[in-house]
Amino acid sequence: MNNTNMSDKELLPCPLCGKNKGYSLSEGSTYRWWNMTCNGCGRIVDECSSDRRMTTGTPLPERCRNADEAWNDAGEYAESLRQQLAQQPSVDVLVDAERYRWLRERYVMANFDIYNAEKFEDGVSGIIFEMPEGITYSADINAVIDEAMTEAKPIEKDVK
Ligand SMILES: [Zn+2]
User: Fold this and answer.
1) What integer pLDDT is reported at residue 23 of this predicted model?
2) Domain containing 108: what range?
3) What's the 13 CA to ligand 1 centre distance in angstroms?
């Protein structure tokens, strides 16, 4: 079916609830204006100019071009914010990144190849960084790093 009908036009999600269930039309304050009610949350999102009918009470179309455009205008900014948020790293990733940056400033040696430690002269495997007196160690490396971050003094770097 070669259908260029306006009802095929892509509608953005509701700016208020984010659901993608489209709108329903109802008469607004006068027959010249229609309210667009979200089919997801039931709130009136915006209004649009009607088809300029001259009487009230006539059945309204399911979709119309004016309403599609007004709906998408209303939802455009919210949708752009949703897409930006979707690209943000999770809180877990941000916390890990903070740990890594903290550790990177302090580490002096790292060797994660623990199964081939004997080929290094000192045979040490692991990661070594600034530690307070009485080394804290645990199977939970995040907890160890977090504790070291809490107790450590700031790094003073040479400025070139
Ligand atoms: Zn909604």
Assistant:
1) 96
2) 91-151
3) 8
